[in-house]
Specification:
Largest sheet: 4 strands, mixed
Number of strands: 7
Shape: elongated
Distance between the termini: 52 Å
Number of domains: 1
Strand content: 35-45%
CATH architecture: Roll
Strand order of the largest sheet: 6-5-4-7
CATH class: Mainly Beta
CATH topology: PH-domain like
Order of helices and strands: HEEEEEEHE
Radius of gyration: 17 Å
Helix content: 25-40%
CATH superfamily: Pleckstrin-homology domain (PH domain)/Phosphotyrosine-binding domain (PTB)
Length: 115
C-alpha cells in the first residue's frame, strides 16, 4: 500500500520539482509579464517552462488578442526564421501596445491580431 502511494505521487512530485527548477533560473524576471529579455534572448514565460529564443533567430512575433476587456487574454506566437514557432498564452493587464513597443525596441517586428 505504501509503495503504491509512492508510485502514484512520484510523477506529480517530479513535475513540481521540474517547474520550480526551470523557473528559478530567472530570479529577476518581471512579475506578470508574458515575456522578458535576458542577454539578447527573448524568454517566453509559459506556465510550465520558460522558452528561451535568441533574438537573432526570430523573424517576427504575432500577438493575438481575443478580448478587449481587462484583463487581456493574449496568445504570443514567436515565429523563427526557420519557420518553426513557439507560443504561450497570457492573461494580465499589460496592454498590447506596451508589448509591441518592447519588442520593437529590440528590433523585432510585432504583428498585432485582434479577433
Amino acid at each position: 500500500m505504501i509503495i503504491w502511494n509512492l508510485i502514484t505521487i512520484l510523477p506529480v512530485a517530479m513535475l513540481i520539482a521540474y517547474v520550480i527548477i526551470s523557473r528559478s533560473r530567472y530570479k529577476n524576471r518581471p512579475k506578470g509579464e508574458p515575456f522578458f529579455f535576458v542577454d539578447d534572448k527573448l524568454v517566453l514565460d509559459a506556465v510550465l517552462r520558460m522558452h528561451v529564443i535568441p533574438i537573432s533567430d526570430i523573424d517576427h512575433v504575432e500577438v493575438n488578442s481575443s478580448s478587449y476587456s481587462m484583463p487581456y487574454i493574449v496568445t504570443i506566437n514567436v515565429i523563427k526564421k526557420n519557420g518553426k514557432s513557439k507560443a504561450c498564452s497570457y492573461m494580465g493587464y499589460t496592454s498590447l501596445s506596451d508589448m509591441a513597443e518592447a519588442l520593437e525596441k529590440r528590433g523585432i517586428y510585432c504583428k498585432e491580431i485582434h479577433k
